[in-house]
Amino acid sequence: MHNEFKIKKENIIKLTDLKGSCIASNKITIEGKKINYMYREQPTNDTDSGWRFFAGDEDEEYTNNPDNFHIFALNTICNYDEAIIPYLEYPINSVLSKSAANKFILEK
Known about the structure:
Oligomer: single chain
Mean pLDDT: 95
Number of domains: 1
Helix content: 10-25%
Low-confidence stretches: none
């Protein structure tokens, strides 16, 4: 089963010069939900930024299925939700969630 990403490759614009890949939930890239939870872990390889992005309503069953996530360039995910851009240089182990006021709050 092939799912369509909400933003076509040819419609991706450059929003950041930051390099690296990240992992994002299909709820963002296929269903079109905004990012409400993000964290940065130790990168798994030289091209990994360590960032992981979630809509925030993924349950354990959803997150335990690797088919529900894909690897993207950071810039690609910025096209899905520009609100993340000011936080992308936060250090490893940063955890942010979106508040009721629609602003990211550093939890850790």
